Queue: 3 jobs
Job 1
Amino acid sequence: MEDIKYIIESLLFVAETPLTINRIQKVLGQADTKKIHEALTALAAEYEARKGGFLLREVAGGYQIRSRPQYREWIKRLVRPSPLRLSKAALETLATIAYKQPVMRSDIEHIRGVDCGGIMRMLLERKLIRILGRKQIPGRPLIYATTKQFLEVFDLKDLKDLPTPDEIESLGNVPRNV
């Protein structure tokens, strides 16, 4: 399998979601994970050295070919995607779930101090959160967590890439030029 790098490149090109090494291995059959990882590293290095219109990113537990951020404006002119718009309340709810997961709705409402049923329904519809199951307590409430779609939308490799509370607080302390 000497063409493994180019086969993987083709798979990444047509994949709609990030491909994990395990998924690539299932498609390739006899390739071992070390060779797949080496091929991915080589592709990423080639794309970076070339400085072309795209790069290879590790995101949401897998790998994906993505356009370079500096060309975003031209891509928007062509594609005109509907931007993901989330209200402040939706962002607060999503952040609470991201940092406290697995979490119950009652915990989220306790933290936010308001009902969040409608917001959570919307986040479920947009596939940013998911239901993990039910907690084994009276009433058996649902337990929520973020999804791979959440990681993709926010360009995170995994949940460890979320900013720490100290990093968030330091953003609030930056003086603004008014």
Job 2
Amino acid sequence: MASLVDRIKRFLHGPQGRQARARAERLARDPRTQAKVRGILARLRGGRRH
């Protein structure tokens, strides 16, 4: 039985994995997506009390 890591590697090297990677890279370059992520991270950091 293939380990989970092996199955992920096989997926990423296949056609669907390449499409998913290309979509993720495109979303990462989008300024709107970057702003959303910064907002989420700011809320997460701001809510922590040490």
Job 3
Amino acid sequence: MNKRKIIIAIIFAIIVIVGALIYQIYTAIDRSGKIPVEVAAAPNDAKITFKDKKTKVEYAARNGTNYLPPGDYSITAAKDGFRSSQTEVNATTKPRYTVIIELMPQSDQARQWQKKHMDQYNKVESIAGQQIREAGKKFTEKYPVVAKLPIKDPYYSVGYYKKDDRPIIVIRTESPQYRYKATLRLVSMGIKLSDYQIEYADYKSHLGE
């Protein structure tokens, strides 16, 4: 290799390195103070728009990672021939979950497109399924009682529903005696009742209340 080729190679390498550094600096500045929001969309070329609920400013987004100013957003997604969707996300801090977007086809052409690109839908559904499993695991770890419910007994039942991301324990029985027994059963299972809100359904007080 002659000197000319060596010099050209060195210059090219320097240009590549400087270009990479400039890009990293630009990216760091551009993303400074912004929140990363992950989006998994099918179709992955859908037009996605984030609209800040407070400022009404709209931001074009895409399938993948988007960097946005902190805020509460309404998200719209659209593609010709598909039913549009709308959802919301709080991005004042990094959202714990990926925003899932699945547009359903309405036209014959869109249905044909979907058949040819089911891999995109399968990928999105896989991400959604994984998030559901992880959320369920964290919820059970935080509130271990849900792993032990429901309880079925000939005279009472104990279940729960979620409210404000907390479980509300529901004891169903008409009998004051079995209301008490159901409560004791929870205690015997190691459940600290003060950690939960408990509701009684179908209960009939002997005092006529």
